Amino acid sequence: MPQEYKKTKPITHQKFYMQNEDTGGHYVQTQSNINELYYYLQDTRGREFDYFAVYRDNQGEELNRQTVNYNFGQSRLNWNKPNLDNNKEYAVQIVRKA
């Protein structure tokens, strides 16, 4: 994925949520439309792809996986926020899988 993103939820390096702040989905909004550049459902050889937001703990172990969809009009990768434990750090990766 390109490094040029406009906005994320949660924000980069966010340490915590305030009470009732974590409503709605998570997303990465890109500077420009990434459709067919970085986000494509099928390549030129006909291979199909799925996209996921993978939540990992500090040791890199996968804890949760959410399906990612791309909103072309908003230039935004969207996914549902999973249930997260209090006082726990997570790393989130966007993964494309054939």
Provide a descriptive summary of the structure in words.
This protein has 98 residues and is an all-beta fold. It has one domain (5-97). 0% of the residues lie in helices and 38% in strands. The protein has no helices and seven strands. The protein has strands at residues 5-9, 26-30, 50-56, 62-67, 69-71, 76-79, 91-97. The strands form two sheets. A four-stranded antiparallel β-sheet has the order 1-2-6-5, with no helix packed on it. It has a three-stranded antiparallel β-sheet with strand order 4-3-7, with no helix packed on it. Strand 5 (69-71) and strand 6 form a beta hairpin. It is globular and about 45 Å long. The two termini are 16 Å apart. The mean pLDDT is 84.
**Spatial ordering of strands, largest sheet:** 1-2-6-5
Tally of helical runs: 0
Q: Strand fraction band?
A: 35-45%
Spatial gap, N to C terminus: 16 Å
Globally, the shape reads: globular
Counting DSSP E segments of at least 2 residues, the number of strands comes to: 7
What is the helical fraction, as a range of percent?
A: under 10%
Low-confidence stretches: none
Number of domains: 1
- Largest sheet geometry: 4 strands, antiparallel
Summing up helix and strand content along with how strands pair, one would put the structural category as mainly beta
The H-and-E topology, N to C, reads as EEEEEEE
* Averaged pLDDT: 84
* Rg result: 14 Å
